[in-house]
Input
Amino acid sequence: MNHTTNPNLRERRAQRQDINRIVAGADLHIGPHFRTYGELAHGGIAGEELGTVLPDQRNDVVAQQAFVEGNAEIDGVAQPAAGRDANHRL
Output
């Protein structure tokens, strides 16, 4: 919680910002050669005398990270793993 008196250095009512950030992730391994991972995040702001809440202060749901990874062994030689990492607003 942020509590600000005289917001913007003006004689105004005090402002209270209740800020929350929630992040959840899951890592799923299927056998020795396949893996998938996902991470979602949420950010919110509430309170009193907020005025206009800017878009960068509030996210409903964001995919922080998401990837699928696969690897294999061919003729006894380990092959490199491949995957994808991204950040997308849902």
